[in-house]
Amino acid sequence: MELTPERLVAQLGREPLRPAYLIAGAEPLRVLEAADAVRAQARADGCTEREVFEADDRGFDWDGVAASFQAMGLFSRLRLIDLRLPTGKPGKDGSEVITTFCAAPPADTILLVTAGEWSKSHAGKWSEAIARIGTLAIAWPVKPHEWLDWVERRLNARGLKAERDAIDHLAQRTEGNLLAAAQEIDKLALLVEPGEVLNAARMDALVADAARFDVFRLIDAALAGQPSQVARMLATLRAEGLAVPALLGMVVMELQRLASLSRVQARGGNVVAEFKAQRVWDSKQAVYRRALGRHATAHWDALLAEVGHVDRASKGRAPGDPWILLERVLLAVAEPRAFKLIAARA
């Protein structure tokens, strides 16, 4: 059975937990909330044993997962196996382990698989096996024409009512950023009086301008591969009078992080451990992996070197407009074809 994450959450509690769940997609908020709902329902049904497995690309011990499937619960009648696939691909060994579990799932075990990436190429016998005995929930990106309705549903789910103009204001301010919208709606739930219907003026008074283009969202847009967003955000920041040096600290930190992750990945090291060492949250790992897939390690090093030139230009010690130079760097992060501008200058 395939559902949206929201539909999955809505049906939990109305029926017994299924033996297996696969929740995947590039929208971390939707994946996380649906997975949290499954975990919460398992606890409500008496599950006190939970094992977490982080399946890295290379060298992961699938035998340990298989052994856990076969083990009896020691302290509760229900166990939850929380299996996380950052790339959404378990490989041959993992596929066999999951398929074998689904062929005869133990009565006392629930399998929850979450993945940060998903497309038709990720599906296979293992995901089909999960769908046969359980539920497949895919968090496809919310399309621009769906954004207004998503915001309205989120408001309604928090018990909030708003006029259409007010919903439109909130949608415009959060600019398709699910996490920003969710945070603003949670704040509204604390501030709005019961029964109040928000109009546009009241919404503007209560909601911070979450679409203000700060450096954090600028970096997020570059990592997510959104060059048009990057260009628009930089233009807005420049118009607001922000100085380039105020942005460079975060840009350098993220490029250093990506270069380090890329080196580990290139030599076949433990990328999951490096994510932890670099303090990258689970919900952010999928977007980092997509960014890593755009460039070789040498490119990340070249981008770091180019930021040094941007810094010197911003201080009058090197030629060039620092805003244009910074735009080139961030566009190259977002779009591999833009890297040739960096390579040409080098």
TrEMBL record:
InterPro entries linked to this entry: DNA_pol3_clamp-load_cplx_C (IPR008921), DNA_pol3_delta_N (IPR010372), DNA_polIII_delta (IPR005790), P-loop_NTPase (IPR027417)
Lineage: superkingdom: Bacteria
Annotated GO biological process: DNA-templated DNA replication
One GO CC term, this protein: DNA polymerase III complex
EC number(s) given by UniProt: 2.7.7.7
Catalysed transformations (reactions): DNA(n) + a 2'-deoxyribonucleoside 5'-triphosphate = DNA(n+1) + diphosphate
One Pfam family hit: DNA_pol3_delta
Ranges of residues in domain DNA polymerase III delta N-terminal: 21-118
Swiss-Prot/TrEMBL keywords: DNA replication, DNA-directed DNA polymerase, Nucleotidyltransferase, Transferase
Enzyme class: transferase
Similarity comment: family membership: Belongs to the DNA polymerase HolA subunit family.
Name under which the protein is recorded: DNA polymerase III subunit delta
Lineage: Bacteria, Pseudomonadati, Pseudomonadota, Gammaproteobacteria, Lysobacterales
